[in-house]
Design goal:
121 residues, single chain, 64% helix, Arc Repressor Mutant, subunit A, alpha+beta
């Protein structure tokens, strides 16, 4: 059985999404950081996402180079299962997001200071 995200993990998801990461992507990242590797169906269940939401998150994560995917051979007919694994530790991902957000904040503060000067505040 697949474990759902804990309260602490849900809080990490919330903070990641407030830092600018799409909420569904944040759920996938947190779940994969916990499990190491998982198939799409397990991600859907644990992160409480629908299959299309997981697919979209995976597409983005692949484009960013944050995950790697491998096909698992399945008995019988049908599509092979895909298994996903983070290519970076969650600490590195968080560090990168924090750095990016701090740069945005510095730029916003600089822009606000310039605006105040221009209007004579």
């Amino acid at each position: 059985m697949v474990e759902e995200l804990t309260e602490k993990e849900e809080k990490i998801v919330k903070l990641l999404s407030e830092a600018g990461l799409n909420r569904n992507i944040a759920k996938v990242v947190v779940f994969l950081s916990k499990t190491g590797e998982a198939i799409s169906r397990d991600i859907e269940r644990a992160a409480n996402l629908r299959q299309p939401e997981v697919s979209l998150a995976m597409k983005e994560l692949k484009e960013w180079g944050w995950i790697k995917e491998r096909e698992l051979k399945k008995k019988g007919k049908g599509r092979p299962l895909k298994s996903y694994k983070l290519t970076y530790d969650i600490k590195d991902i968080v560090s990168e997001l924090v750095k990016k957000k701090r740069e945005e904040i510095k730029k916003a503060e600089k822009d606000l200071e310039e605006l105040e000067k221009l209007v004579g505040l």
